[in-house]
Amino acid sequence: MSDPIVTLLTDFGWKDSYVAQMKGVILGIAPSARLVDVTHDIPPQDVAMASRMLASILPVFPPGTIHSCVVDPGVGGDRCFLLVRTQGQTIIAPDNGLISSLLQTAEGIEIREMSETWFRRIPFSSTFHGRDLVAPAAGHLAAGIPPERFGPVFSRNPLRIEVPRPSIYPWGVKGEVVDIDHFGNLLTNITPD
Question: Any idea which fold 5-162 has?
Answer without folding.
Answer: Rossmann fold (3.40.50)
